[in-house]
């Protein structure tokens, strides 16, 4: 009698079936899905991937004119344009990951209901798509950055540029986790879809995207609001990114460590909620 | 011991009845608060039944199954019997409420073809994407890409975006991808509903090859008994979430179609059998007995002696009779007529001979029709019901038919003779 082998066991009583090996096996699918997102987004557009740049470009223009010049909220000593551009694209990593994932279950329902594959493939590919977006925007930013560097406009890049990949990963993980939690809960409560739209833009006002926190007396280190403000897990990352490329502001490692802890906790919750919902969301959606 | 491909162990799948969630948080809170104060739920439609928390519906009820490796299994059952739920659970699209499912090998689910096709991508890109969704790696798709394109018959459009495809082309491409996966278990849910006749045949042949020659495990769900017969070695009949029958295809089909097990008997009591409403029962068949057979079996090439007993009412008119010979899935094979029967008022018991020598060995259901017809073909129906089942057995005379194939039909027509 030969021993019976099983490649997979589905157990109804187990609530969590997260399997990392399975995700690693689907790397081809992740790659193809990223490609699909990318190609399909820019098909039949005249400008194609240029759109990835146009959005942050105009956001930056508006920020520099209204917040920077008119309201005077920009940073001291650095050109407003590059200051806001840095802020916008790094913020986009977070918000893009969140937005792209917030509807995972609902938009992919027709696929999820027919075929099984590790569902986490979707959020992961959405995050990777966002990285590609960022790469395009970053390349664009570098053009201005080099220009300002050469024209000696007061920006001083430093060794902390090496920290940038870490910041990117952290913000992407954070955005992805928040998105995954939202998408898991929207399978039952569609209300959250509404919240995401304005919630993300509100969040951006709570983060140093459209203004420089270090020239605001209420938010400066040592001020009353500083500790509270820095608990926003996006803030330290944005600060590091700006400091590394522009030399403006400062880095607070304590709060960056806290934001990493926060990220990991959210990620753990996200994976748990996700793998719980993925099993039976078809019955509730 | 045979190696198993799938083992389903005491699996149940439960759905709550009634409204599941209001859809919005507000609606759900409203309902909860209303319930708390014993008021009517504001989100219920008038007259709608309120289901208690414990009212549940079991789509699958403590179901256990074993499927051997390399077997082609048909799953049949009426709508709502749990077929699709079972497939979904095996495909892991949704999880069982309780119980365990063991799977040995990779599964390709063809619950739908062309899952994940994206309108804007070309056929080629979609083949890779679809393949990856179904669990293939890029290299594996590279290997059989040409085969897929050839099978799909859309070769010249392969670099055109799928949004320009006709629905038939999409299905063809989708089927081509799915059927070329080299997974060990294939799960198919009536995917052949679209596509022209030629392509449907091609698909059936392809599936047959997958099942018979390549030794893969196939699970096939369909309402089309002809394809089930052509494809499967064994059948599972589901009924209200339970296994009603497991066994040979013919038996399973008869369980499914006639809702009863095929039991070998030679006496059929018809007094309780339901008749269609258009029958006026002026002549009513009460029973049929197969005379020279113990258990309803007849050797191939024999004639069958039948004893019919029926009741004729005084007002009844002329009586004609026909037997419609049917396969187990109730597809007709042919009919036998008797133009006029003499009868007396009240009980009649009469013997008849039915020539079954043209029937291929197998099981048959015979439907009796008592009727009368005027010259214009207007018929008056007295009685109509499945009056008996017979099984034709292989005999010495049937050696010619030893290698009979399922697609030859069920009747042997008169021989070809050479003109002299």
What is the CATH topology assignment of the largest domain in chain B? Rossmann fold
Largest sheet of chain A: none
**N-to-C span of chain B:** 59 Å
CATH superfamily of the largest domain in chain B: P-loop containing nucleotide triphosphate hydrolases
Q: Hey, which two chains have the biggest interface?
A: A-B, 42 and 53 residues
Instruction: Classify the beta-strand content of chain B into a percent band.
Output: 25-35%
For the terminal residues of chain A, how far apart are their CA atoms? 45 Å
Architecture of the largest domain in chain B, according to CATH?
Answer: 3-Layer(aba) Sandwich
How helix-rich are the residues of chain A, as a percent range? 55-70%
Residue runs with pLDDT of under 50 for 5 or more positions of chain A: none
Unreliable stretches covering 5 or more consecutive residues of chain B: none
Shape of chain A: globular
Task: Please tell me the overall pLDDT of chain A.
Answer: 87
């Amino acid at each position: 009698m030969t021993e019976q082998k099983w490649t997979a066991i589905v157990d109804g009583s187990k609530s969590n079936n997260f399997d990392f090996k399975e995700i690693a096996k689907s790397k081809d699918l992740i790659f193809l899905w990223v490609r699909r997102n990318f190609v399909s987004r820019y098909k039949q557009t005249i400008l194609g991937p240029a759109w990835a740049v146009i959005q942050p470009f105009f956001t930056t223009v508006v920020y520099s004119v209204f917040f920077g010049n008119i309201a005077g909220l920009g940073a001291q000593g650095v050109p407003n344009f590059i200051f806001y551009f840095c802020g916008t694209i790094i913020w986009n990593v977070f918000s893009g990951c969140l937005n792209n994932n917030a509807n995972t279950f609902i938009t992919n329902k027709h696929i999820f209901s027919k075929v099984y594959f590790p569902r986490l493939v979707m959020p992961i590919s959405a995050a990777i798509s966002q990285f590609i977006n960022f790469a395009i925007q970053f390349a664009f930013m570098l053009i201005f950055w080099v220009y300002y560097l050469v024209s000696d406009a007061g920006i001083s890049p430093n060794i902390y540029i090496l920290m940038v990949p870490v910041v990117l990963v952290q913000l992407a993980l954070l955005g992805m986790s928040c998105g995954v939690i939202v998408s898991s809960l929207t399978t039952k409560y569609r209300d959250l879809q509404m919240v995401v739209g304005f919630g993300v833009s509100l969040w951006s006002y709570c983060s140093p995207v459209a203004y420089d926190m270090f020239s605001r007396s209420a938010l400066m280190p040592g001020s009353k609001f500083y500790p509270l403000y820095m608990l926003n897990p996006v803030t330290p990352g944005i600060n590091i990114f700006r400091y590394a490329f522009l030399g403006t502001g400062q880095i607070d490692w304590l709060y960056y460590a806290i934001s990493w802890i926060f990220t990991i906790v959210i990620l753990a919750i996200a994976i748990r909620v996700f793998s719980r919902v993925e099993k039976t969301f078809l019955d509730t959606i | 011991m045979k190696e198993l491909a799938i083992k389903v162990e005491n699996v149940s799948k439960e759905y709550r009845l009634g409204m599941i969630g209001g859809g919005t948080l507000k609606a759900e809170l409203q309902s909860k608060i209303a319930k708390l104060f014993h008021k009517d739920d504001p989100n219920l439609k008038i007259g709608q039944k309120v289901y208690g928390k414990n009212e549940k519906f079991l789509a699958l009820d403590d179901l256990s199954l074993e499927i051997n490796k390399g077997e082609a299994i048909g799953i049949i059952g009426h709508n709502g019997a749990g077929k699709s739920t079972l497939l979904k659970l095996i495909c892991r699209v949704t999880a069982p409420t309780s119980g365990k499912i063991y799977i040995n090998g990779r599964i390709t689910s063809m619950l739908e073809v062309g899952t994940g096709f994206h309108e804007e991508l070309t056929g080629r890109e979609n083949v890779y994407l679809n393949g990856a969704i179904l669990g293939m790696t890029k290299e594996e798709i590279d290997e059989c890409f040409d085969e897929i394109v050839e099978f799909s018959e859309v070769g010249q459009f392969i670099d055109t975006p799928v949004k320009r495809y006709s629905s038939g082309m999409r299905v063809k491409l989708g089927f081509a991808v799915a059927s070329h996966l080299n997974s060990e278990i294939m799960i198919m849910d009536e995917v052949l509903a679209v596509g022209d006749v030629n392509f449907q045949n091609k698909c059936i042949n392809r599936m047959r090859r997958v099942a018979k020659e390549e030794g893969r495990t196939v699970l096939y769900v369909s309402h089309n008994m002809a394809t089930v017969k052509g494809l499967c070695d064994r059948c599972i009949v589901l009924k209200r979430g339970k296994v009603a029958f497991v066994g040979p295809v013919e038996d399973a089909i008869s369980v499914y179609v006639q809702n009863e097990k095929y039991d070998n008997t030679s006496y059929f009591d018809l007094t309780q059998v339901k008749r269609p409403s258009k029958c006026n029962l002026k002549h009513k068949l009460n029973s049929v007995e197969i005379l020279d057979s113990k258990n309803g079996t007849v050797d191939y090439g024999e004639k069958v002696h039948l004893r019919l007993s029926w009741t004729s009412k005084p007002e009844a008119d002329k009586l004609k009779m026909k037997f419609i010979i049917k396969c187990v899935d109730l597809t007709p094979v042919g009919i036998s007529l008797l133009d006029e029967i003499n009868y007396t008022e009240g009980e009649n018991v009469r013997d008849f001979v039915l020539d079954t020598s043209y029937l291929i060995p197998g099981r048959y259901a015979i439907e009796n029709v008592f009727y009368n017809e005027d010259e214009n073909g207007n018929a008056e129906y007295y009685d109509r019901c499945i009056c008996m089942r017979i099984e034709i057995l292989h005999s010495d005379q049937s050696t010619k038919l030893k290698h009979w194939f399922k697609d030859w039909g069920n009747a042997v027509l008169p021989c070809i003779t050479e003109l002299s």
